[in-house]
Predict the 3D structure of the following.
Amino acid sequence: MAFFGKLIKRSLTVGEQLQKRRRAAPIQLQRRTLRRLLKQAQGTAFGQYYDFKDILQDEHCIDTFREKVPIFEYDTMYEQWWHMALREVEDVSWPGKVTHFALSSGTSGAPSKHIPVTADMRRSMKHAGLRMFFALTNFDVDPDLFTKPMLMLGGSSDLDNQGGYFRGDLSGINASQPPFWLRPYYKPGGKISRIKSWDEKIAEISRHAPEWDIGFLVGIPSWLQLMMERIIEDHQLNTIHDIWPNLEVCVHGGIAFEPLKKGFERLLDRPLIYMDSYLASEGFIAYQQRPETNAMRLLLHNGIFFEFIPFNSSNFDEDGKLIGNPQTLTIAEVEPGVDYALLLTTCAGAWRYLIGDTVRFPEAGKPEIIISGRTKHFLSICGEHLSVDNMNQGIQAVEEALDLSVREFTVAPVQEGNRFLHHWYIGTEREVDKEQVTRLLDQALKQVNDDYKTERDSLLGIRVEILPIQRFYDWQAAKGKLGGQNKFPRVMKGKRFAEWSAFVHRSLRQEGGG
């Protein structure tokens, strides 16, 4: 098998080198991408309404495109256009009929969103997956690993048939039609991947785990961790490497991995090679291309045109809502160290679509990003501008100081009298001094965020409650959000936080017997 592994790795290396040679300047790739998208969609209802033919005749089509087409969020895109595609109308915002819709994870608290997933978008995602596979040759990977199976943990591939279209978790949509090159290596296989119940699926994976020689894990790290814990418990193992000795790579995404890494690696005999990815319901956006950074390279020539809005008080209000019609930037105009709200124009018929994520470019001149948070998941009650990235860093500092593994957390702004505080719920399996966690977390947040440090005295304080991790999973199960691409929201506000807080205290009372 070593010979075949080396042959595969050599082929992948050639593929990665060809990708590099074909690379033009980022803005050139983006111009070509936008022109291709405009040409393909000019005959659609959306393309005719916004006169794509006229935009294409302009030499500076990016500027004209930004002038003629407004910025859309999900609600406006759905109400004005996508609702027709959901009723099986053809040629709405992309040519043809949309046959698949991805149900978003719904972390914002809204009902599940229906995101179109066109045939062109599915091809785009498969091409992106292959490019990411090529990039593994940049990491220190044993050639024999490329002959090992890949376990991809996602939503059910048994999609809901709505008559004229299918809907489901994006990972389930992709699992229902895996690319040909992956099929010989894909686990847990078609039968198990169709199981809808998270508990049943994990039980079946655990039952079959001894039959597989897994080399790669792919999925949201929190769910991968739960799966490994179940396998270790069922088979009385010390680590997951006792059953999968050749496990070497973990491709993860969906949530920040660093706060989970300590607990994750306690299940391993040795660290893995970690590769970050950015796959949203709206498209495959970026992946980690090199081991010396955790930043991810944007896919600039794969059916998505990107725009960036500086995430500041001029462009967004305190609730993360867009103000007016702000000027957007292209990949050629962004600066390092600035948080930007991300706009996508895609081959699934999303146009200047505010996805809700914020990103940052760590290095000048490199089209590589990190996800810094969500537009509506920043806390800025009194000007502290606390991002999800800051929160992750704060939690990680607590973990390191106390040798603690934090699996989940959420935070909300709470008003008491005429002042506010940050109310944290932190999930871990170990008993820990709440006051010590509060002090360490507060100190860490002051270190990573100057605005928080400056405005901290304006806050009444921070309040921390420590919960068993199962409480978070029980909540997700109650909401039908267990497994797949579902994520626990890092920030809760208003009615949703009140509902979560009531759920927690009701559970505590039940455990206490009254």
Confidence is low (pLDDT under 50) at residues 1-5, 106-110. Residues 2-22 form the longest helix (21 residues). The first strand starts at residue 100 and ends at 103. The two ends are 61 Å apart (CA to CA).
